[in-house]
Amino acid sequence: MTKEFICIVCPRGCHVLVDDAGNISGNQCKRGETYVKNEMTNPKRVVTTTVRTVFEEIPRASVKTLEAIPKGLIYQAMDLINQVVITKEMKIGEVVIENILNTGVNVVLTKEIKRKEVK
Ligand code: SF4
Asked: Has residue 55 been placed in a domain?
């Protein structure tokens, strides 16, 4: 049976087909072929979410995995990320969790945590 994937590598969103013999069609570039091969063997996703902070004015801050991690690890990764509480000011790109679940991928801050000046 032919399988259909929607390539998410770029906004074109090609519908890529893989037939029983493994022939790939519908992709408008080579990256779509690579994407589908990865989806069939080891699908990965970038995780974007938020973590808690101790600051009332910024109760949550956005984070993401710097690269995609295996889809099968996303729930475990979310459990770890949900345990994080930021207790100091941090800049965008600073590491919140290093090498999450031994994937070699860091979770980094995507929103600066800077408290308002108290006058
Ligand atoms: S196959 Fe190529 S052109 Fe089509 S969505 Fe994927 S990356 Fe974009």
From this structure: yes
Torsion of CA 9, 13, 18, 23, to 10 degrees: -70
Span 7-16, average pLDDT:
96
**Does residue 71 fall inside a structural domain?**
yes
Candidates 18, 24, 29, 33: which one to mutate for ligand 1, based on the most atoms within 8 Å of Cβ? 29
Minimum-distance ligand 1 atom for the alpha carbon of 26: 1
Domain identity same for 59 and 92: yes
Number of structural domains in the chain = 2
User: Is 76 a domain residue?
Assistant: yes
Q: pLDDT tens, 12-49?
A: 999 999 999 999 999 999 999 999 999 999 999 999 99
pTM: 0.79
Question: Is the dihedral angle over the CA atoms 46, 50, 53, 58 positive or is it negative?
Answer: positive
